[in-house]
Every structure is written in structure tokens, then in C-alpha cells.
Amino acid sequence: MPALSVGSRVLIASLLLGSVVMGTAPAMADNNIGGGAQAPPPSGNASGDSDGEGNLSATAGAVVFDRSKNGSGESAGPVASTASTWTPPACYYAPMYSPAQLQEHLEPVWEAESTGYEWDASQRKRYVDGEPYTDFNKDKAGDGYWWSGYVAEGRAGDPGALDCDKPYFWVDTGEPPPADIPEAITPEILAQLAYAEIRVPSTKVDLAPAGTTKVNLPTWAWLDTAEFKPVSVTASVPLLGVEATTVAEPVSVKIEPGTGDATTYPASGVCEISNSGQIGEAYASGKSDETPPCGVKYLRSSGDDSYKLRATITWKIHWTGTGVAQEQPLPDGEFGAEQDVVVQEIQAVNR
What we know:
The protein is of the alpha+beta class. The chain has helices spanning 6-23, 99-112, 117-127, 187-197; strands spanning 64-66, 77-78, 80-81, 91-97, 144-151, 169-172, 199-200, 206-208, 212-214, 219-222, 231-237, 242-256, 262-265, 270-272, 295-298, 307-321, 328-344. Helices cover 15% and strands 29% of the residues. The termini are far apart.
């Protein structure tokens, strides 16, 4: 097997520890919602912290999520970014070790000589011999932490999960992380991580007629606005005193009839949210001759089958956080679902 590079060896050690750290988090730390399951929102207080002497607890650097204002229910799901080139980060850098803890972690590795003399020697130069750090920065104990890479919960197999491959680096307390490390935790990175945790309700629309409609009969479509209200997730690193809240608000629904033999209302199929907060309008008696503000008219029977009508909600997403005075935008998100619509021919009876 070819020798691993310095970056690769450090990455493997960092990721192994990161997985242990994330896996042993208390109730408020990252849970399996980020992995795609719909667990109940966590409760209790965040506990990541130091002991006052610069020593980190097991979860101090891990991101903590408050999902108490998130969407819920069996049909809730994550939004997909409408920006094809953007996705929430799959890894990030945050505090991982105090000086004593880094020494405790690295020296047994060096002593075991399992990583090779050259690599061990280069590491000793970096962290002990002053190139650029001296004696693991013990003289700064309590004044900062060694940072390393974490893989975001549930993202281990994603592209980008192995991008946080820089060796351990030092950040003084109260100072920003290095500008040349874009994945280092900041309020903006926290907002992006919270984006991945947003869950929104299913997008099944109410229809009139419901379930079964007729050829050439305008079918009204609308959403229950009680369910479609803003949701939010707050992400924080308590040790650093930074947080960000990401908010998703519904702005429109796109109706796709499931067949080309149909007309949508409006013609674009996109029903914008009104000033009153409504998406579409509920059908009421006496409106049968009116054109629905949001809906569909099928031009051909579905026969013995049904059409798969798809309704996709667009959610406008923004965030605020520590030191950020105004709302900042993130890419819009989408979440859609299909439902069966049976379309029958209107039968005429001749006498």
C-alpha cells in the first residue's frame, strides 16, 4: 500500500475522532434527524463546554441544533436547493482539542510508529518543535483551542465530506478562524448547516372536486395555510458563543398535472402566496362558473388509471445570527409530493 500523505493521515485521525464526538453527543447535540429520519425534536440544555482550564468536553466543538420550531410529521421532509450548484456544507471546522488533549491524542500515535518515521517527524516539528507551534501551545492553555474537521451528521457519504482535510490549527479565544479556511465555523456556516436540517410539511393540495374530477371541468386547488407557515432551525456552538437561525417561508406552489392534456391556472402553473397569506383559494358553493385562481383543467380522461398531480412548494430561506443585524438570503428550497387524480368523461344520456 502506498504511504499516506500528511494531509490524509491527519484527515483520517480527525474524522475518526469527529465521528466519535458526534456519536456521543447529548440530547441537544446533533441527532438522527440530520440523517434523514424524523426523530422528535431534542429537549434539554446544550452541554458542550470546557472545564475552565482549557479542556474541552466531548461535544464542545460539535454543532448543536434547536429544531423546536421545525416542521414535523411523518410526511415532512428536507428542502432541495433551487440553486443547482449549491448545497449545505458536508463538513466544517470547529474546536476539538485543548493543548493537553492534542498531546494526549498524538503522542501515542507517534510512539506506536505505525504512521512512519517521516510523518511522525513532520508532526513533531509542527506541534512541538516550533514549526510553527511549540509544545502543543501549552502556554496558551485556556486562551484558545485546536480546531479540526467534523463531518456533518448524516453527510458522511456525500461529496465534500472529506474536504475538511487540513491538519489541526490553533485559534485564540475571541478571534475569528483563518480567512483561508472557508469551512471554519462562523454564523454563516451555522446558517448553512441549519438549512440542511429544515423540514417542511408535505405538499398535498386540497382539490375540488376532490379525488375524482371530470374532463373540461376546472378543478380548484389550494393549501391549508395553517400547515404552511414559516419554520426555522437554530444552529450553535455554545463553546464559541455563536449561533444562527435559518427560516423557511412558503411563497408559492407549482402545479404539474401529470399529463400534457391539461390546462393550469394560472398558465404557468405557479400559484403565488397572496397578501392574506393564502396559496390558492378554497372552493365554495356558487363558484362553479368561475375560473379558479389556482387549479387545473384536464382535457382527457385518465381511463382506468389516474394522473399523478405533483405540487411543489417553493420556500424562501433566509438567516440571522451572531453579529448579523439584517436577514441574509440563502438559496430558495423546494419540496414536492404527488397525489392521484382520477379524471372521468362526462356521460351524456340521449332519450
